Amino acid sequence: QLQIVESGGGLVQPGGSLRLSCSASGLKSYAVGWFRQAPDETREKVSCISGHGGNSKVADFVKGRFTISRDNAKNTVYLEMMNLKPEDTGVYLCAAGGPWGEDSVYVPLQEYEFKYWGRGTQVTVSS
């Protein structure tokens, strides 16, 4: 019942920035996570945010460079990526868990809790 669409990926040089968007009708009621998968690599969790938006987690390998946020009036979650590195290259996927409600402060941390997935958007960091 949730159709997730990601956008904002592209080709950037090392040190550049991108802003990814994740949108779906009713997304404001769900906790949302961003995941990425490089070629021939296992999918890894990048960042996740509660329904309310007041609580979030960012993986250590992108902490200080990536920021997650949401605008529930637009049913949209963002991932701002700064100072991009070649190792950030991969398909970035948005996933939703719950719904636990737009007032929920719960941040799911296990991948199995995210039941609804978008197709992903490609991010390539190369000079």
Overview of the molecule:
- With about 130 residues, the protein is mainly β.
- It is about 0% helix and about 45% strand.
- It contains no helices and eleven strands.
- The protein has strands spanning about 5, 10, 20-25, 30-35, 45-50, 55-60, 65-70, 75-80, 90-95, 115, 120-125.
- The strands form two sheets. Strands 2, 4, 5, 6, 9, 10 and 11 form a seven-stranded mixed β-sheet that branches. A four-stranded antiparallel β-sheet has the order 1-3-8-7, with no helix packed on it.
- A hairpin with a 6-residue loop joins strand 5 (about 45-50) and strand 6 (about 55-60).
- The protein is globular.
- The N and C termini lie far apart (about 40 Å).
- The mean pLDDT is about 95.
Number of strand segments: 11
Instruction: Specify the helix fraction band.
Output: under 10%
The proportion of residues in beta strands is 35-45%
Low-confidence stretches at least 5 residues in length (pLDDT < 50)?
A: none
Instruction: Give the radius of gyration.
Output: 14 Å
Oligomer: single chain
List the total number of helices.
0
Gist of the model:
The chain is mainly beta.
Chain-wise SSE layout:
Blueprint: E1 5-7, E2 10-12, E3 18-23, E4 31-37, E5 44-49, E6 56-58, E7 66-71, E8 76-81, E9 90-97, E10 116-117, E11 121-125
Parallel strand pairs: 2-11
Antiparallel strand pairs: 1-3, 3-8, 4-5, 4-9, 5-6, 7-8, 9-10, 9-11
